[in-house]
Structures are given as C-alpha cells and as structure tokens.
Amino acid sequence: MAEIDASLEELTDFCARSATMLQTARTTEELVAIKEQIHARTSPLATLSKAMRNLPPKDRPRVGSMLHEARAELEAALKAAETRVNELELSARLAAEHDDIANYLYPGRLRGTGALHLITQTRMILEDLFTSMGFMVAEGPEVETEFHNFEALNIPKYHPARANQDSFYLNYGEPESTLLRTHTSPVQIRLMQSRTPPIYAVVPGRVYRRDTPDARHTPAFHQLEALVVDRGISFAHLKATIETFTRAYFGPGIQARLRPAYFPFTEPSAEFEITCTICGGDGCRTCSGTGWIELGGSGMVHPKVFAHVGIDPEEYSGFAFGFGIDRLAQMKVALKDMRILPDNDLRVLAQMRGVL
Amino acid sequence: MRITLSWLAEFLDLECLFDLQEALRVGPSHAGVRRLVDAMNELGMVVEGVEHARASLDGVVVGQVVSLEPIEGADKIRATLVDDGRGEPKSVVCGAWNFQVGDKVPWAQPGVTLPTGMTLSERKMRGVTSLGMLCSPIEVGVSTEAGGLLVLDPRTPVGVAFGEHFRIFDDVVIDLAIEANRPDANCVMGVARDLAAWLKVDFIAPKQSRLPVNVEADPLNDPQACDRLVVAKLTGVALASFELWRSRRLRLAGMRSISPVVDASNYVMLELGTPTHPYDAARLAGESVAARFARPGEQIVTLDGSTRMLEPSDIVIVDGDDRIAGLAGVMGGLDTEVSDRTSSVLVEAAHFPAARIARTAKRLNARSEASARFERGTDPAILELAIERVAALANLTLVGSLSERINVLSTPVAIEVRSARVIAMLGQEAPLAVLAPGGPLERIGFAIEEKGGDYLVTAPSFRPDVTTEIEVIEEVARHFGYQRIGSTPLSIAVGGGLTERQQLIRRLKAMLAGMGVFEAWSVTIVSEEERDLAGGARDPIRLADPLVANECEFRQTVLAGLLRSLRVNVSRRVAPVALFELGPVVHPNPDPGAPLPDEHLRLGVLIEGGENGLVVIAPVVTALSRLLGLEGRLSVGEASGTLEGWPDLHPSRASVLRVDDRLVGVVGELHPRQIPSELTHLVDGRFGYLEVDFEPLVAGMVPLGELRIPSIYTASTLDLSFSVPRDYAIEPLVRMVTDRVGDLLSDVMIFDRFEPVEEPLRIYVGVRLRLEAPTGVVEDEVIQSLIEAIDQAAQEMGVQLRRA
Question: Which stretches make up the Aminoacyl-transfer RNA synthetases class-II family profile domain (chain A) (predicted)?
C-alpha cells in the first residue's frame, strides 16, 4: 500500500518537475530533452503503467485515473511549451533578420527604369490633345522631294521663302531635287494627295534647317503641324482651334492671338502668339517686354496649294498651323541649351523619368 | 528695316493722335509710341525693337579754328585755338588732320556727354590745355564713318548750338520685320500709308513730281527685262551736299554715309521704297542707259570689286554703246561708279521683273538693299518722284528734262471679289466693311467698285502682291483686324485617334523604358568615320553641302548614330549605357526610278553589361518577341560575315534575327573596335546591341488572341542536362526538346551553363522544363518516356543527355 502511495507521490513530483521545466524551457532542444524524459521507459509514467498489472484490482482504477490525468497534464503542458518556444524562436529569428529598406534605396542614378525622351513625351501630350479633339496623326519621310517641300506649297524656285529656310540638299537624283524636309508641311501635300476631305490631321516630326546651332536652335528639330480640310472651314475655325489647343496645353490663364504674317502656302496667313508663360503677360526679358511670345505660323490653305493636289477650292477650304515641339518642351523644363539634346548624355536622359 | 518716328511723322498726321515732340523726347515708353507699335504689330509689320536715339548734343557748338600749331614732342596731335564767338579763342588739342585754319567744326565743350557716351572735361595733353574736343561725324551721331573732323558749311554761324542749328533732335528708332508679301511696307512712306488707314488719320502723300518728262523710247531696252525706265542727268556733283539731320537718319536706319549723291539715293530708297542708281555720266557712252538680258559669256566687275560671270537670265544695264554698266537691280558696275572726279551723274530709276532680280541676287550671292526691294516688287509709278527727290536732297541740278526710255507697263486688272467668299473665308460678314467706300482699302489706294453685292478691286501700283481674290481677302482681314475676327469651334464629324501602328510604337517605347533603357535622339546624319565604324553601309547618300564635316551622310544603320552617344557617355564616365532609338535609316532605293531614297524606321538598342553583352541584350529580344506575339517565330541564326545594311558586330557573338525566314535584324555584342581606343580604359563591360527593322515586325505581329486557362494541377519540373560541343547552336536543341514534349510543356528555361574541366571541348547546358496537363498531374511514366525520347533525339543531333 505504502509502496503504491510512494510511487504515486513520485509521479506527482515528476509531473510537477516536468511542468516547471516545460514552462521555463527556451529552446526546441530543451523541449526535446524534456520530452525524452517524459517518454523514457524509466520515467514514473512508464514504470507505474508497467506496474499496473501487478496492482491489486481495487487500486487499479485510482492509479489508472491518476496516470491518465498525469499524462494529459504533461501532454497539454508540452503542447503549450512547444507553441511558446516556437513563438520565441520565430521572434528571435525575425529579430536577427533585421534590415532596413534604405539599404536598397540607392541603386545608382542609371539603374532602374529608363525613360521616354522629353521630345517624345511632349509629342505624346500634343498628340493626345489633338486626337481627343478628333484629329488623326499622320507622318511622312524626313527626306523629301523638292516638289513636296517647296513647289507644291507655292514656294517656287528663287522664292525668298526658300532662302529663309536654308536647306540640306542631297546628292541624290537631279541636283536640288531631294532634301531634308525644312518643315512638316510636305506631309500636308502627301495627306491631300492620298485622301479625300474631310481631313483633320496633325503631323509631328523632325525637320532640318541649315542654322548654326545655338542655345535655342539645333539644325535638327521637331515640329507639329495641323491640317484641316473640309467644307465651310473659315479663319474663325482656325482661331478657335488655336485658342483651344493653347489653353489645353498651357492652361486656362493663357490667351492666344493672331497677327498678320506671310507664308506662301497660306492666305490669309498669321503668326500666333500666346501670353508669356514666364511673366503672365506683364512683360519680362523672355517676351522682350511685350507680354507675348511667338509660337508658330498659321493660315488658310492657299488656293494654289489646293490646285497642286487637285482639291477644288470652291468646294473645300482649310487651315493649317504649325509650331516647334522642342520649343514647347524647352518651355516646360526650362532647358537653357538645346544643343545638349543630341548628345544623349544619360545624366540628362535620366531626368526625363519624371512626369512632364 | 529701321525707321525713325520723326521720319514717319513726315507722312502721317500723328499730331492729331499725340504730342509728337513729347513722344520724341520721352521715347519708347510714351503712350503714343506704344500705340503706334501696337498698330504696326496688328498690321503684320512686326516691331522687333524700339530704341530712343537721343541727340545728346547740348553743349556742342559750332567753333571756328583760328590757329593750328604742332605740339613739341607729339606727332599725332596738334594744338588749336577755337573761336565760339564768346570771348577769346580757346585751346583745344585735336588728333585729326583733315582741317585747316578757318574751318568750322562741331566743338564739344567740357561737361558735354556725346551720343557715343563720352563725357568731356578740361585736361592737359603734352602740357597743352584742351577744353573739350573737336568732333568727327561719328561723335555727333550723323555717321558711322569718319575720316577726321566734321567740317561744316562755311556759311554756318560761329557759336550757334550745333544740334539746333542742324536740326538734330531726339528721335525714336523703330525696327520692323517686313514680310515678303508686303513690298509696299519696305519704306517709310509705305508704313505710314498702312498706319494711316488703320489709325484713321491723314496720310501725307508726297507731291507728285512736276519735272518735265520726255518720252524717248530706247530700242536697246528689252521689254521683258524692264518695263519702265526713267533717267535724268543731274549736274553740280562737286557742290553736292546732304543735310546732316538726314545723314543721321541714314545712320539710325543702319546705312553708311558714302557721298551726298549716294546718300541721297539711299535716303530716297528708304523713304519711298524706290531704288535709284547714279552713274558717272561721263563714263557712259551716249550718257544713256538701257536694260537687257546678259549674253552668254558676258561679265561685269561690280562696285564691290567682284568679277561676276553672267548668264542670259541676268538683267544688265548697258550704256549707249551696249557696254555693261551695271547688274540691274542688284549692284552697279565699278567702271561707272560716282567718284571724286564726277561732275554730273545719270540717275536711273526702273522697274524690273521681281523673280529675275531674286534669281540673279541669289545666284551671285549679291543681295543688297536694292535687290531686296526689287525682288519683292517696287512701285513703277513713282520713278520720276524718286529722281526728283534725289536731285533735291543732294542739291543737284537737273539738265533738261527727265527721259522715259521705256514704258510697257500693263494696265492693272480688276479683281473680282465675291462677298460670299469673303464671308466664307473669314467666317463672318463684318469684315466686308473694309471694302466699303471710304474704308481702309480705299484709303490705302485700292480702287473698289461695288457690283451687284460683290466687288471689283484694283490694286494700286505699289501692291504688286495683290493679284487674286484671296489676296484681297487677306487685306480685308488684316485691316478688319485679326483680333476682331470671331472664333468658331470646329465640329468634327470624322473619328480621329492613333492608328494601331502608332499605338504599337508607344507600347514598344514604354516597354523598353520599363526595362531600364533610355530613349535617345541621335543624329541621322553621320560622319564617314562613324559609318565605317558601324559597318555594313553601301553607297551612302551624301548631303550636297554639309554644314559640318562630321555630319555629311545619311546613316544606314541606327548604330552609326548611336556610336556618337556611346562616345559621349563613355568619355564622361557615365555608365552603364542603356540607349534605344526608333528612328530612320536611309538606303539607296532599289527602285532606280523612285524619286526618293529608301527611308525606313529601325529600332536600335545598346546596353552595357558585364563580361558578356549577349546577357544584357537577350532580354530585349525576348521582350520584343513577347510584345509582338512572335514567340516561336522570331528565330536566331548564325551571322556569317558582313551583312549589307546592317552593323558589323563581334564576329563570334552575333546572330541574325528572322521572322518566318525573313531577315529582320541583327543582335550581338559590339565589336571591340567600335569603342574608340582612347576610351577603352573607361569601359568596364561589354555592350550588347540589337538592331531591327520596324515594318516587318509590325507585319509579322500577332496580336493577343485568346487567353489560355492554365492547368489547376501541381506542375512537374524536369531538369535535363545536355553535354554539347562548345560552338553548338543551342536553338535547334531547345526546339527539339519543345517539339518532343509538345502540349505538356508550359515553360522552358536554360538555367545553367557549365564548362566541365574534364571535357574542355564541351559545355553542359541545363534545361528546365515545366510540365502541365489540363486533366491532372503529369504521371511519372509519361515523364520517363519523354526522357527516353529526348535522349534518343539528342543522340541523333550529336548531343548527349547526361543521365544519372
């Protein structure tokens, strides 16, 4: 009898000791060791279980239930300890994995995404603006015939306007028969030759003039030209279109105005100006104190141009206007020297990642 | 063109608008001047600058030199005593040598600040006191040149204020840009006439010439070369004079003073727009001139000393012996130039066909103020007035009468201007008022006759640019005011937007930028060196006359343009380089009859990487084929030797790209020679390069058709290792594997390349296959049989599947 009680006491002790150890265990290794002790064949649990069959039957239920309780108690404690140790260990591992995002925020200026060119981005903004108004976008070759670039635009040989647009002629075909286009206007001719009105198109593209490069001019630059040919088109439509486009691009505070000018391929012709974007019209150095800056040329398509492309000027009328894309880009980003653009210095290109 | 306000006021009643004298004193900020400037701008005579030209002559008096002595030890200056009529003559040291005792000269006394900005004081030079300075024409602002002091008319009273006596006052200079279609506005009178109509003030027309004119037709004149020519013989050249205040206007207008006769001729050209030319009468046979076309082989030495070979399209002025005396409308001849010995001049005023003059002036590179006016069109009706004015301004005397040697001017034709057309072009009815009696066009000088609601409009002789209805409509719009014309928004009934091709270009560029590549704008015109460095060019097309030697021909590869950007970045130690450009290349046209060369769009992508340029450029090829739906159809093949029209690349790291067997581009690593040797020490990595034609890619493009639904079962991965010869082309092997696996294959990836030490001639290539089936996991037996099949096929290709 006393022997049983002693064994039971030992079991209780064992359970209490194990429970304490489980509560204080800090690592999986410790837990494994405790678990081994609990499940060892020499543990009071095992010895008492083994002794059960030699016990008098009357004692068996009591011992059995105690054994059962002890086992359940230890299993529960083990489980809790495992959960606690896992948690501890995870925390410790995560703590050890400390890192800082800032370690990765300095990849070097040229790493990461690239960028579209400033001119492309400006061109896209303009294309989107005009396509939203219902225009299509047309393109043409950079190498043009003298006919498309001059003759069909009512600029015959020896016309003073040819001297104003000093050209790069090619050694190709007859002398002075092919050249790098001096404006995007030859695409007007190509459009009118290949389509029947109505035509509502804008033509962006690169053009070339024999100018010595300076801060504001490069021999190659970009223009955008608009051409409208339809029934009933008037100078009033031209004015409204220029006003709409300049307001949409530069903002509602910007006014546009037209003043008489001369272009061989339009009549009446007009230069268009906008409120100086630097001073808002008060007058500053950029606008030479006038409050206005010149943006481009415009006018009603000349009947002689229509004659060259076989459009009846009594049935159709139209307008055209054009301006420099580079100039608009330059205004957006306050670029002081245009000559750096063809260099493609990546330190410049990398700045073009930003929103224009 | 620079004109002055005081000059303009001689032709325009400005006094009724503002106080002219006040405006001249106050300058550009004066409200009246600003109003004029606005008016000129609105009329299309664009004001490019307004300057205040102050006389700055207070304290400059007329002095008479009463003694002239050398200064001991000085050989450049002399001592003078000058009398200003107030007390004793005073000492002034002078460095000029063109005067003598008794001469009257402008004397700037101490305290005066001259127009040149110089302020004078009393000082000593070589021990001699100098009270101010005796002045040259430059110093008193009447000329840009001087050969010494300005020696004045001996009749000038001593001691008078120089500026007031010679009527030199403050003025305002207006710099105008006159458009090519406004020949009338190339002179003070024309600007005034246009302004008068706009401002509704009186135009003060010059009085018509009252000189007698004899009609003496000269058969030497060719009516095709000149339709009106008037000459006059003027004498008294030795005594000719030209008033100082007019000289000053010439200077303010930007012209040099030459001699009274030439200055008067120039003055009249600026004032009336009519060039005249004075010849030394004694040097003209028969004291006569006529105009005809040059004959083959003829030549002339012009005023500037150049010998000019003439062509039959040039118009020349000849004398009575048919000897060439001048290049009509462009420049006079040296032989007949007015000189010190000239006693009388023959002044010619004529009207020439504008296009001929333009052609000659351009061909001979001899544009002058006169040719600029003739080539835009001059007024043939005021030739007599011009000659009379030259004579009057230079103080010359007409001998006999003016002589008209030809006059075959055609009568101006009335232009029919339809009201409906005016309204249709300008979008409103109000501008028709410009055509009304007493309206602006009539005030300018247009003859307008109303006829059944429409108009018959005859342009005045000074508006040769107005010959058609639309040109009249432009004048109507201009004088109505562009700013008063209303705005009517378009209502566009057709659809616009970007084409698929244009959208594809945007997608492509955005993709490349997303991959870390920057869009470049590189040059289409390259140097011979860049062309040779890039390679592949054939019969390059050159510019006829390049601006700079390093931009002389069209690139045939994008690389030829990008190489310059590469050099820029490498030399500045900017790395890694990652550039792309979608731009044109220009090749000779295979069709010999085509008017233009073959210009087409190409994409070039240049990326700097590590030890192997292929590693960095390959992802671009992959991305491109995925974007365009070309996976499986864009194939790489070995590039052998130079490909015409395509850049040369690293000989054993280059491939050609084909879509459905059509060559579309090349890809590989830059040849080491393409990096300039002086920069190689700045380069860390190799450069991968891709160049493809854009159009065949678009043509071969397959848009995303249908999104496939992937298997929901766990996929199997099969890693295969092949032992292949070192120079083995990998693509056929990959194709074989993908063919064998067929529909089960959802992805293939080369995950390893290993160079075994024990087999130096071979490479182990690791290929990872992802296998999926729509109905379940892929069974082991299936995989085993695939391995067997691949093994066998590999052996047939001379490749060994390495099996455990």
Answer: 126-342
Q: Which residues of chain B are within 8 Å of residue A346 when distances are taken between CB atoms?
A: 518, 569, 574, 577-579
Look up tokens 């106050």; give the residue. Answer: B26
Structure tokens at B490: 């378009």
* Per-residue model confidence as pLDDT tens digits over A112-163: 999 999 999 999 999 999 999 999 999 999 999 999 999 999 998 877 677 6
Q: Minimal CA–CA distance to B373: which of B304, B277, B458?
A: B277
Q: Model confidence over B691-705: pLDDT tens digits?
A: 999 999 999 999 888
Contact A160 B595 (CB under 8 A): no
Q: Do A177 and B595 touch (CB under 8 A)?
A: yes
Task: Of A105, A271, A127, give the one whose Cα is nearest residue B45.
Answer: A271
Q: Which of A132, A1, A13, A102 is nearest to A58 (CA)?
A: A1
Question: What burial class does residue B632 get, using C-beta atoms within 10 Å of its C-beta: 0-12 exposed, 13-18 middle, 19+ buried?
Answer: exposed
Please name the residue that has the structure tokens 């092919």: A178
* The two structure tokens encoding residue B90: 């005073």
pLDDT of residue B263: 95
Both tokens of B202, joined, read: 């009186």
Give the pair of three-digit tokens for residue A276.
Answer: 């100086």
A265-285: pLDDT as tens digits: 999 999 999 998 888 888 888
**B651 vs A273: CA distance, rounded Å:** 56
The response to whether A267 counts as a known ligand-binding position is yes
- Cβ–Cβ of A131/B543 closer than 8 Å? no
- Residue B445 CA to residue B625 CA, distance in Å, equals 70
Cβ of B509 within 8 Å of Cβ of A234? The answer is no
Q: What are phi and psi of B293, to 5 degrees?
A: -80, 150
> From the CB of residue B558, how many other CB atoms can be counted at a distance below 10 Å?
30
B568/chain A closest Cα distance in angstroms:
7
Cα distance between residue B556 and residue B559, in whole Å: 9
Of A198, A206, A349, the CB nearest to B518: A349
Cross-chain residue pair B490–A240, CB shorter than 8 Å: yes
Q: How far is A103 from chain B (nearest CA, A)?
A: 21
| B474/A268 Cβ within 8 A | yes
CA torsion sign, B222 to B225 to B230 to B234?
A: negative
Start-to-end CA distance of chain B, whole Å, equals 93
Report the distance separating Cα B689 and Cα B654, nearest Å: 9
CA B99 to chain centre: 47
CB pairs under 8 A between A and B: 249
d(CA B459, CA B466) in angstroms, rounded, equals 6
- From chain A, the residues in CB contact with B470 under 8 A are 267-268, 300, 302-303
Which residue from A minimizes the CA distance to B508?
Answer: A116
Structure tokens at A238: 């031209």
**How confident is the model over B626-682, as pLDDT tens digits?**
999 998 889 888 877 778 999 999 999 999 999 988 999 999 999 999 998 889 899
Mean pLDDT of chain A: 91
In terms of DSSP H, where are the helices of chain A? 2-24, 28-39, 44-52, 60-96, 118-132, 146-149, 160-164, 186-194, 235-250, 303-309, 325-333, 346-349
Q: Determine the Cα–Cα distance for residues B300 and B393; give it in Å rounded to an integer.
A: 30
String of DSSP letters for B525-588: EE-HHHHHHH----SPPBBSS-SSTTS-EE-SSHHHHHHHHHHHHHHTT--S-EEEEEEEEEE-
**Helix residue ranges, H only, A200-290:** 235-250
Q: How far, in Å, CA of A64 to CA of B522, rounded? A: 92
- Nearest C-alpha of chain A: how many angstroms from B368? 13
Helix (H, G, I), strand (E, B) or coil at B250: helix
